[in-house]
Amino acid sequence: MNVPSYNKFLAKTLFGLEEVLAEELKNSGAKNITVKNRAVEFEGNKETLYLTNLSLRTALRILVPVRSFIFKNTDEFYTKAKNIKWFNYLNPNHTFAVDAVVNSKIFKHTKYPALKLKDAIVDRIRDKTGKRPDVDTVNPKLKIHLHIQNNKCNIYLDSSGKSLHRRGYRIEGGSAPLNEVLAAGMILLTGWKGDTNFLDPMCGSGTLVAEAAMLAANIPPNLNRNDFGFMNWNDFDENMYNKIKTLLKEKIRKPEIKIAGSDISKKAIAIARKNISRAGLNAPVTLTVKDFTQISKNGESGIIVTNPPYGERLKSISLIELYKSFGDVLKQNFTGYEAWILSGDKTAIKHVGLRPSKKLTLYNGAIECKFHKFELYKGTKKKRLNNK
Predict the structure, then answer these.
(1) CA–CA separation, 137 vs 139, rounded Å?
(2) What is the pTM of this model?
(3) Could you tell me which residues are beta bridge partners of residue 303?
(4) What digits encode the pLDDT tens for the residues 76-106?
(5) What is the dihedral of CA 299, 300, 302, 304, to 10 degrees?
(6) Is 229 inside a domain boundary?
(7) Which of 167, 205, 316, 332 is most deeply buried (CB count within 10 A of its CB)?
């Protein structure tokens, strides 16, 4: 596959993390950054492509635009798709797959555009070479993304391969584990930079703790991955890729703060320990089996970021009782800290008994959640301001 030169990219992310991702891209040296819905457009070069796949914490995948066009009907869609020089990207010996996101009245079935694009690709290459490439939805040589909104079509190459949230450390998960990209995004939304102690008192399988430890140590989230989509491209520059990895490794630091996670479930902590060990994060992380009512602060300041359990994870305590008890613990034991709570239950979160200073909307899978910030002052906020 001979991929032509490119300098425009699209980074996909989760709802609510667009601005965080844009900031990450800015820090990575990307140019002309534009925030979209669940995505961020940016410009760079091949080095940028490799660096962003390795280091972005809140990107799901990095796409390279191939062609955009307007179409009036299915026949015109097929014709314009076939007119793309697909042999620049794919030869008959390679496999490919198409992933489609479609919102259009022109197509009655959302799977049909993907099928028409596959036909266009196969027909174009067969006309050119006399042979046809095969489709492989499990492990394709080239992954193509098709986005259709009404009558506008955008076609991309997938430089990432599998989703970038799959860091490789979380082979095992507890009940309802957070997506790694969501966990990293939650932490970045707090503004925490690894400079104060971090605690997740209901850590489950440890995703928030792991992402916090990687951030504090400046460890790129996908540093240990070696199966990116761009590695299948004929223009893959292995020397450039290895140099970037070496430079990233040189910037890893030893955190001077404490990162801790606890959970009442022995099974969850056992899984968390395996995940943390697999990620090579044992040094800065402490994990303990403990009910959240038994936790106390370590130092005068720090941050709590947590996703309290709900549904099947609750057994002997009601949701409202859990949030009320957690609020009491925060007020009694964690003055001087910030607490950030992700909750999918709008009623339960009110029973924390604290006034949030910030509310953000995020999605944990299909569940709309609110991400609340609580500043834990001594006395009331009004008294604190008057004492200044």
Answers:
(1) 6
(2) 0.91
(3) 198, 338
(4) 999 999 999 998 888 898 899 999 999 999 9
(5) 90
(6) no
(7) 205
